[in-house]
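Before the break, one more example. Copy the sequence into your notebook; we will annotate it together after we see the structure.
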Amino acid sequence: MFVLGKGEAWLLNGLGQLRLEQDRFDDAYAFFARALRLFEERSVRTGCAGARAGMGAARREQGRFEEALPLLTSALELCREPEDISSMAHVLYGIGYVHREQGRDDEAWEALSRAHRLYVSAGDRHGEALALRSLGLCHRARGDLAGAEALLRQSLAIFEETDDAYGVMYASLSLAKVEFRQGRTTEPRQRLDRCLEITRKRQDVFGEALVLRTLGEWYLAASDAETATETLRQALGLWDTLHLPLWRARTLRDLARAALAQGRTAAARAFEQEAYEVFQRLGSREALEGLERGDASGR
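Here is what the structure looks like once it is written out:
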């Protein structure tokens, strides 16, 4: 009987990473899980850590936080310093992300700060910028827009220095939201238009949905509820395509705001109720905060 070896396990792990980057999260999880079984049979510590981290990342992106956190924590336990500091940083980034999404702000800040220090130690500029952006999102979730803007600008500068178009797009998107929440309109709208162009050129469906949702919020800030509704419905359709209920719920919450602005109270209540049920089921921070407070958007 043909026995799969370590090479096949690493191949499966690589396929999982590819599917993760393609936003095919169930497929990614399945590949990582198959890789993990082979790594465990052969006691390949680094392989087990990587596969568990990949499984955790897939569940994290799906908003399945109760599954993601144990996987990421077990991956971290398998890492060793100093040889695995890059892997440790990446796993800590994921752990911090989950803590933030579930409203554990102090734990999120601790994990992401540690990830940032390890990325810097490893000389990983991409990881450094990624961690700074995520720390900025912690500030944004707490309502500290000035603190968020400072960190997001640092993140954006590094992505620009390293010519990382993908990183530039996501950092710009996060910065635009902070800017228009502080009453600015022109520059964030220019950022968002550029982001939308990039996501469509790169065929990044997740990114496109995220930009459309943020554009919908921009229109709400500009008191254009009708265009906001149209734009948010476009985002909703993409979340449905990607099977991402948490992001769908967040967009429903935005649609509730648009409906209220148009005097459609019953529709607003229906959107809010549907969104809140998802928040409760997934254990996201919105379930703790209620629908009217703060912003938990991980991107």
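Residues 105-122 form the longest helix (18 residues). The two ends are 46 Å apart (CA to CA). Try to locate both features in your own notes.
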